[in-house]
Amino acid sequence: MNIDNWLLDPNADPVVLIDCYHTEGVRRIGTQPYITRPDDNPANVSYDDFVDGGLMFAAQMGANRSIGHLEFWGMEGEHLLDWTSYTAWIGNKSWAFSQFERLASGIIESATRPSRQKIRLEFSDPAKKLQSQLLTEKTGDVLTPLPMGWAFNASPVVEDAATLKYRLSFSNLVDIIEVRDNGLPVAGYTDHGDGSFTLSIPPSADLTCDTAPSGSTPSTVRFCCDLIAKMKGLGVSGVVNFGSFQNEAEVGLFVNGNETAWSLINSLCGSIGAFPRFNEFSELELVHVPHSGPAELEIYDDDIWQDGFSQLSIEPVRDVKFSYRKNWTVQSNLAGGVTAENRDLYGRENTQIDIDNGADDQELQLIDSLLTDPSEAQQEAEKRGAIWARKREIWRFSVVLPGLTARLGQRVYVDITNEITGTGTIIGWSKRPDRKQTELEVMF
Q1: 430 shares a domain with 312
Q2: When you count CB atoms within 10 A of the terminal residue's CB, does the N or C end of the chain come out lower?
């Protein structure tokens, strides 16, 4: 059975079952009482009807996490248990447990007692693992850098001053394609193929390097995000509605400080109009946001709860300043032999594309991307320019929709009589699957 079609059936009576795990066992509760069958796994297990207010989930474009919470009538002292994780299921009370659909799973972040008999569990996801600093390895007393893809003008660290050995990376993901001393190419150096090189003579000033992906190693947003996630002990991402351009666009990243893994993933995704999130199963997703194209969902008057819509804001027309080919080491006072073109190139933070939409002077959308190819940067800049070429309205709708269908970045057609008609993009939602209720924030 298709769970979405079932939820749309007026006769569907959803029940949500939740397994809440703690160090002493598991607490099984539901929005309605339920007992598994003798041939189920687990067999003959009772889910108590102790949930208060249902199961709530929420997600917002640009937010660090997808979160939710659960309140239930608990026993004294239960909030003091060491709660660890949860799994939620949805189905019909008459079904066997094997027919239930997994609704969500993740981490229980905390437990509190808001009243004498009530327990509140706050749900979270693995985003906390990505909030920590990415780099941990050191060369001497400094962090060992990590370049990815086409890093431009990146600064190596000294590994052995006596032998003139320098290190640009702790991995062999990239090739060092040029080493420069004060802006001038260095001919006499030995590349060791492991992210380090040795000079034949001491440098006269600051060293910088350019990198390229090594061999068949990709330099795409998805590859770099997956590498960062794996470095923090997470699995690779799923990709939602990425087009061919977003899958193939090449980036350049150079990490040499205390940047968090999450901030780096956000910067990579932002380069192609996407964002990262953890879905209801605590899986990392990279979601591209299409502000054009056909609708996948439709909302009409009959889908709206009484007075269940409001206009939240109107975003003005904006000019766009799109930056690409980031310069990782901005230099001035370069050697006399550096050409005027390179002097300008090494002395600025990036290359910029300006999209003039005729906006007021103060309405400017600044986008710092990690794209490196001029044609790909131009393509993305024009897409951003088209987004802000007209005013954008943000509305909230309280709708009866199948609780599992609406997702961030999804296109939705809305036709509310005498109010609004058009196709927009979902930028936020909150869901009560057991009641088939969803609140959507949509940008038109």
Answers
A1: yes
A2: N
Residues in the chain: 444
Contact by Cβ (8 Å): 184, 214: no
**pLDDT of amino acid 263:** 94
pLDDT mean values, one per 10 residues, the chain (444 residues): 72 87 90 92 89 74 66 77 89 91 86 81 80 92 96 97 96 94 94 95 95 91 92 77 75 96 94 87 83 88 86 95 97 89 95 94 92 96 95 93 74 93 92 82 94
pLDDT of residue 2: 67
How many CB atoms within 10 Å of residue 15? Answer: 21
User: Structure tokens of 338?
Assistant: 């550096």
Give pLDDT, residue 420. Answer: 92
What pLDDT was estimated at residue 115? 78
| Residue among 52, 381, 117 at smallest CA distance from 249 | 381
- Structural domain contains residue 408: yes
Residue-by-residue DSSP string for 153-213: SBPPEEEETTTTEEES-SSSSEEEEEEEETTEE--SEEE-SSSEEEESS--SS-EEEEEEE
Q: What is the pTM of this model?
A: 0.86
From the list 104, 434, 120, the residue with the least C-alpha distance to 282 is 104
Tokens standing for 430?
């909150």
Could you tell me the residue range of the domain that residue 58 belongs to?
3-125
**Would you state the pLDDT for residue 433?**
77
Please state, in angstroms and rounded to a whole number, the distance separating the CA atoms of residues 57 and 64.
Answer: 14
Please name the residues in contact with 333: beta carbons below 8 A apart, sequence gap of 6 or more. none
SS3 content of the chain, % helix, strand, coil (to 5): 15, 45, 40
Residue type, 146: L
Based on the structure, what is the number of domains in the chain? 3
Tell me, yes or no, whether 12 and 57 share the same domain.
Answer: yes
Q: Output phi, psi for 195, to 5 deg.
A: 95, 5
Classify 322 as helix, strand or coil. strand
Together in a domain, 426 and 302: yes
* DSSP letter, residue 3: H
Chain center to CA of 60: 11
| Amino acid sitting at position 86 | Y
Contact indicator for 319, 359 with CB cutoff of 8 Å: yes
Q: Can you name the residues that pair with 276 across neighbouring β-strands?
A: 286
